[in-house]
Amino acid sequence: MKKTIADLDFSKDNGLVPVIVQDVNTKDVLTLAYANKESLELTQKTGNSWFWSRSRKKLWMKGEESGNVQNVKEILVDCDSDAVIYLVEPTGPACHTGEKVCFHNDLG
């Protein structure tokens, strides 16, 4: 079923939806971030992954500082319309630490 941004439920987390970022080729989960309506619109418009920073309270594009942009190939919406997946082709590491993925620490 085809969904639009207007179909998304932004009411559960202060106007945000969680975004799982996944490598379209390897299926690795790269990171988890959050998006508001504007960042989703920018993602669709530019083809790059945009998010809302909860700590800095501003929009940001992955790679705007590091150069490690993520080219968004598809956006999937979950069954409740309150979370999305960006399927991306990354141009470098996803994590700000330089790791390929943000999920690289074991919980012991």
Explain the overall architecture.
With 108 residues, the protein is mostly beta strands. The chain has a single domain (8-90), classed as Roll (Ubiquitin-like (UB roll)). It has one helix and six strands. The chain has a four-stranded mixed beta sheet, with helices on one face. It has a two-stranded antiparallel sheet with strand order 3-4. A hairpin with a 6-residue loop joins strand 5 and strand 6. The longest helix is centred in the middle third of the chain and has 10 residues, at 37-46. The model has no long low-confidence stretch (mean pLDDT 96).
Give the number of helices: 1
Radius of gyration: 13 Å
Question: What pattern of helices and strands is seen along the backbone?
Answer: EEHEEEE
Main β sheet profile: 4 strands, mixed
- Could you name the ranges where pLDDT drops below 50 across 5 or more consecutive residues? none
What is the count of structural domains? Answer: 1
Please name the fourth-level CATH homologous superfamily.
Phosphoribosyl-AMP cyclohydrolase
Main β-sheet, spatial strand arrangement: 2-1-6-5
Helical content band: under 10%
Number of strands: 6
Q: How far apart are the termini?
A: 40 Å
Shape: globular
Query: What would you say the CATH architecture is?
Result: Roll
CATH topology: Ubiquitin-like (UB roll)
The average pLDDT score comes to 96
CATH class: Alpha Beta
Sheet-strand content, in percent, reads 25-35%
Query: Structural class of the secondary elements?
Result: mainly beta
